Structure formats: C-alpha cells, structure tokens
Amino acid sequence: MPLPKAELHLHIEGTLEPELAFALAARNGVELPYADTEELRKAYLFDDLQSFLDLYYGLMAVLRTEADFEELADAYLARAAAQGVRHAEIFFDPQAHTARGIPFATVVEGLGRALDRSEERHGVSTRLIMCFLRDQSAESAMATLEEAKPHLRRITGVGLDSAEVGHPPSKFAAVYEAAGALGLRKVAHAGEEGPAAYVREALDVLGVERIDHGLRCMEDPELVERLVRERVPLTLCPLSNVRLRAVDILEEHPLPRMMAAGLLCTVNSDDPAYFGGYVDDTFRAVHEALGIGQEGLRELARNSFEAAFLDGGPEEEALRARYLAEVAAYTFD
Ligand code: ADE
Ligand code: ZN
C-alpha cells in the first residue's frame, strides 16, 4: 500500500492518457495529427513550458461532451487511489474549452459527476479549482468567473496557469479580488519559469494561500524566509520541472534544499500523462534520485494534508485529522 497523501497540483486535462485521447477522438469524430498512441507519445519531448502547452491544448480537441469530462476525471481518480491519494484538489482550465465552443456547464458538470462519486468509488475526497489562463486577457478571466457563478457549489477556489513569463500575477488583481468576494480560495502558479518577484506578487497582490511550483523562490533568500515564516505551502512538481527543463536532471532538483530551509513543500504530479508519472511515482523518484528518506517522504505526505483546503468546519477538520493519522501510522515496506 502506498503512503497516503493529498494531491494539490494536478491539471485534470494533464491526465489525458494517449489511449483515452484516441478513444475519445474516435467517439467524437476528431482527427488527431498522430497516427497512433506510440507516435503521440514520441511527441512528448518538450523544450520548455510553451512547447508542452501547445501539445496539451491541441489534444484537448478530443474532449467534447459531459461524458468525456466525466470519464477523464474518473480515470484519474482510479489511478490516484492506486497511488495512495486520499484527497485531490483538481485544477481545470475552462477557457481552453469554452474557446473551442464547449459550454462551461459541460466541463464542470462532467467533472462534477465523477467527483460526486469519488469518495464512494475510489475513497478519494476531492475539490475543484478553476484556473484562469494567464496568457489570455484579464477581461476573459473575469468573464470566466462570471460564467462560473451558477456552478459555485462545485468550485472551491481559483488558480492561475499557462505561459508564465510576461504575464505577472498583478494582471489578474481584479478577478482575484472578485473571486475572494465570492468566498473562493486562491492559489496561483508562480516561480515555475517566471521570477521570484512573481511569487511575491501572487502573495501581495492576489492574496493567494498557496503557491503552485514556487521553485524560483530559491533565488531570493528574503522571500524564502518569508515563505517559511508565513508557512506558505508550495506545490512542487519535480517530474514536471525535469520534462519542461526548469531543472536539467532530477538529481539537481532543489527539493532537499527547500525542505532543509524549512519551506512547507508538497510533491505533486502536475500533468502526469505527459511527464512520466503519477504522484506516488514522483514520491519514489525523489526518494531514489534525491535521497529523500522515509521520514522525509512522511513529512511531504503530512504537509500535503496540512496544506489542503480541509478547514471548512469540524467535519473537514476531522477528515484532515483522519488522513494525518493514516500518515503517522503508515509503515514503509
Ligand atoms: N497548465 C498545465 N500544466 C501547467 C504548468 N506546469 N504550468 C503552467 N500551466 C500549466
Ligand atoms: Zn501546473
């Protein structure tokens, strides 16, 4: 049995495995520019974030109906459960679908159908986080928040993703303020390819509670000190950082230094269908490549539940306590 953990940085569209992509393409009459799954997998050699995003957004063409989104999420939850995930906070990119003519409701209701059954079917509690595409306009983000209003019972928070450099968090100040006023939680990708200054902006201008990635905070010792002091969780994705060339090789990932500095680190899979592993695969990889031992892995698992949005009342706190007890009681084999 794998170590129990929460996954806090996972793009549901990034769980689209080549086999499902081809099955959905056939079902929906979508022509893919690859002969088969093998040829598609061969295209998974990325130079940077943008080269990945081009393929990632392109492949989304196969997702068209509520049933497609439901199947995508259900397949992820089954895999996640097998990897020890007990709680998943799942990102989705509504603008990548509405721009193709897929209604917002189709996306959120399809995902929601799978999430509704997740505890019973997979033993995984879930939350949904709606991301704004930062390379689209601030107006488009605001229109997306407006579209989300009839579906807020399904949405816990907002995030910010896509091409980072040149699209600082401050561009989205107004939409984050509006999201906060609606009671939504706030996170943002920052410091993946963008500078440490974007991490500061996400905290100071957007008021985020967690930073997604945050890798480049290590270039700014004062920022590190602040993140430690304020116990700001970082949702790191080491396999993603290697595949998108934020670090050269896993053995050089700063995770051990970040943990040693006292940062509240979590380890996540980002887009596991593209980056060579789901979350327990990632735990194993950092154990092997970075020498993070059993107690280090346990710390990462504990952090994941501490950083989860499980503070909405006594029932959620009890669930968090139960998960933390599972981590404490876990014996490695
Ligand atoms: N969308 C999906 N994966 C992403 C990543 N790693 N960074 C930014 N946007 C993303
Ligand atoms: Zn991400």
Task: Provide structural commentary.
The mean pLDDT is 98. The chain has helices spanning 18-28, 37-42, 49-59, 66-82, 94-98, 104-116, 118-122, 138-148, 173-181, 196-206, 221-229, 238-243, 255-260, 272-275, 279-290, 294-306, 314-329; strands at 5-11, 85-92, 125-133, 157-161, 185-190, 210-213, 233-236, 264-267. Helices cover 50% and strands 14% of the residues. Strand 4, helix 9 and strand 5 (185-190) form a beta-alpha-beta unit. The chain starts with a strand and ends with a helix. Helix 4 runs parallel beside helix 6, helix 8 runs parallel beside helix 9 and helix 16 runs antiparallel to helix 17 (314-329). It has 17 helices and eight strands. The chain has one domain (5-327): TIM Barrel (Alpha-Beta Barrel), CATH 3.20.20.140. It is globular, with a radius of gyration of 19 Å. The protein has an eight-stranded parallel β-sheet. With 333 residues, the chain is of the alpha/beta class. The longest helix has 17 residues, at 66-82. The protein binds adenine (ADE) and zinc ion. Adenine binds next to loops. Keywords: Hydrolase, Metal-binding, Nucleotide metabolism, Zinc. InterPro entries: A_deaminase_dom (IPR001365), ADE (IPR028892), Ado/ade_deaminase (IPR006330), Metal_Hydrolase (IPR032466). It is an enzyme of class 3 (hydrolase). Its cofactor is Zn(2+). Substrate binds at residue 271.
